[in-house]
Each structure stands twice: as structure tokens, then as C-alpha cells.
Amino acid sequence: MSKNMYSISRLTKPLPNVKLENLREYINFNLIILQILIVLTTIRWIPGVHPRSIRNVWKVLMVLFILYQTYAQLRDHKIVLPWIYLLSAAVLVGLGIFAYGFLTDSLIIAFGCVTVIYFYQNKNSLKIIFHTFTIWLTIVTLYSLIITFTPLSGFDMAFPLYDGYVSPEVRFSNSSIELNSFGFFGERGIYSITSVGLILSYVYYVKLNSKLSKLYLLSSYILFTQLITIYWLTGSGRAGFVLPIFFVIVMLLQKTSNESILPLVVFSPLFLWTGLYLIKDYQTVRPLLESLNNLISNRIALYFDSIQLLTSNLQSFFGWGPNPWGEYTRAEMEITNSIGSPRSMLTRPHNFLFEFMIQYGILLGCFLIYICWTVSRGTIQEIRQPTSPTRFALGVILTGTIFTGLAVGGKIGPYPINTPQMIFWWIAFGGFVSDIH
């Protein structure tokens, strides 16, 4: 038995037999659920359907997946838990979030843990799901570009400009606005999923020895054009270029023999922000900090606020609970950092680790760090000894989104701002972690 697998034989009587030919029918059902879920992560609404309805579909599908996979395990009379320590850390993170009442986020993490078990037993499903996702995203992106440069009557751009931006909820409450178009992936956050698709399509182009590889090259061009278009028209989306840059860094580290190199690179933004915080009061570095803060949209100020809060208050070990951002002022939190423009309220830090620790505490945050560190070490193993193009791409995507989330606050990660991005990350996590060697 593999050292990374923990097997528990069932001590109770077998469950009653059901009218199914075999366990494979359950597995196929869960494959369909995963394919639907990963496609839905790119969609905020479809014509005439409110975003809230899409969110409810996500939740129902995740619950169904967990229930069917659990039943399949019990019916097989054995529970298989690959990577017991990693799964335990994820379960503790999910339970901590659940204790604070964030039911959706804890459901997503529970779902992610179950996908590890599913992919461990069904390795071929991984390539089916992510090939489907890449093809779908390319079609979606092509549609987005067409209605951007060749406007169709009644159809809005897939990503809004800053001028005149209206949230989906407000749009749906205004009966005078026609919603004939599709809403894609968090709207302004569409650059994040575009960069993910770009990595998948390029890896498939390079590593697939088939006629499909040329189609994936075309897909890469389409997705890269989308990244350029988003930045050109909106002035935002710089974070979308971080993942491709990180891909280049990973390729440079491909020959390294030290498995800790990549995790150190992934967490280097955290070391950088902490180091800059320690020297922020020196007048010689002040102009540099102000310039860097302006370059990355006031992020330095938010990071310094977070570091001061986490290092100066004993409550930081247990956190301040969900959504403290509009509840506390900076003065109430005794934050004195003066970098950047003045702010009265505690503001979301745009860094998933700082955000998680402020909400749920440093102690629970250590488990999240362990998860991210383990994924990073698994990635360096994968790029040195690739097992499949899909797992190779997912390793880069998982570690790259962690790096982006720590560097500039990307939209995808283990604990990001929006639900669909989090669902995508945990599906990718399940597929990658299930076969770390």
C-alpha cells in the first residue's frame, strides 16, 4: 500500500444492493457533475437567469457529488483516503470556516477533499474534465471577442468597462436593462480564468502528440488576444499576465534538484511584503514604497495594514470572523500605517492569506500554508517527472495562482474573493493532489 494512502475497511454490514449494474455508474454520474460544475465556474448568468440561481446550482451539484461519492465508497466496503495529512489540513480549514458560519466556503473545501478521493480512483477523468474546460473556455472567449469588436444587437460586452460599470445584482433589479448576453467569470475577474485557459491550452499544444495540438495552439492565440483586449479596453487585468510569467519561472526551475526551491518562490511575495514592512519607516525607502504602492493600486498600504493588525493583537490567533472589512475602522483596530491614500475603514487586503488570517486566525492559517506549500512541492516533482500534460498544467496553475494571490491579489486561489474561482481551484487541487508521487 502506498505511504500516501490510508485505507479503512468498513466494519458494518454492506449497504443494501441497488438497481445499478456496478459502481462505475456512480463514477460516471460524478464525472458529469464535475464537467457541469467546471463549465459553470465561467458563468455568472445566462440570458434571463439571475446570478443567484447559478450559485444555487453550484451548491446543489457539490452536495450531490459529495453524497454520491460517499455512497460509492461505502458500497465498495472500503474508504480510501490518499494523502491523509494534506486532507486533514484541508478538513480543519473547512471546519474552521464552518464554525464561523461561512457555509458556502466550507462546502467548497469539503467538495475539494472529496474530489481528491474521486480522482485518485479515476485518473482518466482528469484529462476529460480539463480538456472539456479548455475547449469550452476557448468558445466562450471567441464569443466574447466577437461581441466586443462586432457588436450584436441586444448583447453586451462579456467584460464591462470601468465607466458605467453596474454589478450583476443591480442589473437584474433594473427591468429596463436587457440581459440577452451571457455574464462570464466574475466579469472584471475574467482575466484570471483566461490566463488559466492559456496555460492549459499551451501545455496541451506542446505536450500532446496528436492533430489536436494545432487546435490548442489556435486556442492559445485566442486566449492571449483576450488578455490583451481586457487590459487595452479596461485598464485592468495586469494580474492576468502574472500566471504566464510564473510559467516561465517554473520552466527555468525544471532541472532543480531541491524540492523547496519552488515553494520559496511561491511564497516570496509574502517575504517581500514583510521585509518592506520592517523597513517602511526609513525615509530613504519611503519614495520607493509610495511608487510601488501606486503601481499596484494601493496594495502595499493594504498589506501593511494587514501585517500590523496580525502582529499587534492577540486576537489575530483566532481571527475577527467573516467580513470584518465594513465592520471595523482602522482606528478601532489601532492601525497606524500611513502609506497610500487615507482610509477610515478596515479594507479587504486583496491577498488571500492575509484575508484568511484576519478572518479566521493565524492558527488556522498555518494549515492553509501547509496545503499551499505541499502543492508547490508536488509541482516541482511533476515538472521534473511529468505524469500527464493535464497534471503538469494544473501544477503550474495551482502554484501560479497561489503566487499571484500573494503578490497582487489574483481572483483564483484556495480562498479568494468570489465563489466560482474557489470552486475551480479546489477541483484542480483534487485532480493534482490525487497523484502526487
TrEMBL record:
Q: Does the keyword Membrane apply?
A: yes
**Stated name of the protein:** O-antigen ligase
Q: Which UniProt keywords apply?
A: Membrane, Transmembrane, Transmembrane helix
Species per Swiss-Prot/TrEMBL record: Halorubrum xinjiangense
Highest taxon of source: Archaea
Transmembrane region positions? 26-47, 53-71, 83-100, 106-121, 133-152, 189-208, 215-233, 239-254, 261-279, 352-371, 392-412
